C-alpha cells in the first residue's frame, strides 16, 4: 500500500467517525433506568426528606453543534416516589404537598438550552406540579460518557419554592426550598 492510499484510508476513517459522532449527538435520547431524578428538602440546615422518582418518561433531542435547537422533557410518576423517610409518605403524597390523588404526574418541558461552555448549559423550561406551571432553570452538565459513546453523562440541578406550586409553606417543619437533581446518563434511542 502506498502513502497516498494509506492517507486516503485514514481520512475516510476520520470522516466516518466525525459523521458517526455528528449523527450520534443530533439524535434522540432517553434517560437510562439507573439515572436518578430526585429532590431533597432541608430545614434549618438538616435534611428532612429525600425523594427519588422510580418511573420516568423522558426524551431529549440534542446536537452539540446546535444546542439552541435542543429540547428535553420529563414526566415523573408521583405514585412511584421512593422517600428516605417512609413515615412521611402520607404527608408528602397528600393534599398539602404532591396531592397524588388529583395530580399523579409532574412534568418538565424545556424552552431553551443556553450554552455556557465546556458542556455546561442553562436549560430554561417549565415545571408543572399540582397543575401549577412555573419557569425554572436547570444548571446542567452534559458530557460524552468516557466508556460508552452511546451515553451522555448528565448532572442537572435547580431549586424551587414549594409554595410556588401551591404546596403548604413551612408545614410540619419541612423547609420551603426544594433541591431537584438529575444524575446519570442519557442513552441514544
UniProtKB/TrEMBL annotation:
A Pfam family of this chain: YceI
**Annotated SUPFAM superfamilies:** YceI-like
Q: Where is the Lipid/polyisoprenoid-binding YceI-like domain?
A: 28-187
* Entry keyword Signal: yes
Q: Which domain of life is it from?
A: Bacteria
Q: Which UniProt keywords apply?
A: Signal
Q: Which residues form the signal peptide?
A: 1-26
Q: What is the designated name of this protein?
A: Lipid/polyisoprenoid-binding YceI-like domain-containing protein
Q: Does the keyword Signal apply?
A: yes
Amino acid at each position: 500500500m502506498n502513502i497516498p492510499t494509506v492517507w486516503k484510508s485514514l481520512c475516510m476513517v476520520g470522516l466516518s467517525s466525525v459523521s458517526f459522532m455528528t449523527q450520534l449527538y443530533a439524535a434522540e435520547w432517553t434517560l437510562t433506568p439507573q439515572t436518578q431524578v430526585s429532590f431533597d428538602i432541608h430545614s434549618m440546615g438538616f435534611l428532612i426528606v429525600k425523594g427519588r422518582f422510580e418511573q420516568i418518561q423522558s426524551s431529549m433531542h440534542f446536537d452539540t453543534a446546535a444546542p439552541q435547537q435542543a429540547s428535553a422533557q420529563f414526566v415523573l410518576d408521583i405514585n412511584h416516589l421512593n422517600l428516605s423517610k417512609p413515615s412521611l409518605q402520607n404527608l408528602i403524597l397528600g393534599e398539602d404537598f404532591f396531592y397524588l390523588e388529583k395530580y399523579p404526574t409532574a412534568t418538565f418541558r424545556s424552552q431553551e438550552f443556553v450554552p455556557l461552555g465546556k458542556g455546561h448549559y442553562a436549560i430554561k423550561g417549565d415545571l408543572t406540579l399540582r397543575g401549577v406551571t412555573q419557569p425554572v432553570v436547570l444548571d446542567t452538565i452534559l458530557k460524552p460518557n468516557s466508556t460508552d459513546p452511546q451515553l451522555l453523562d448528565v448532572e442537572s440541578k435547580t431549586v424551587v419554592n414549594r409554595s410556588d406550586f401551591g404546596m403548604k409553606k413551612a408545614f410540619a417543619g419541612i423547609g420551603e426550598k426544594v433541591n431537584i437533581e438529575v444524575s446519570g446518563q442519557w442513552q441514544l434511542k
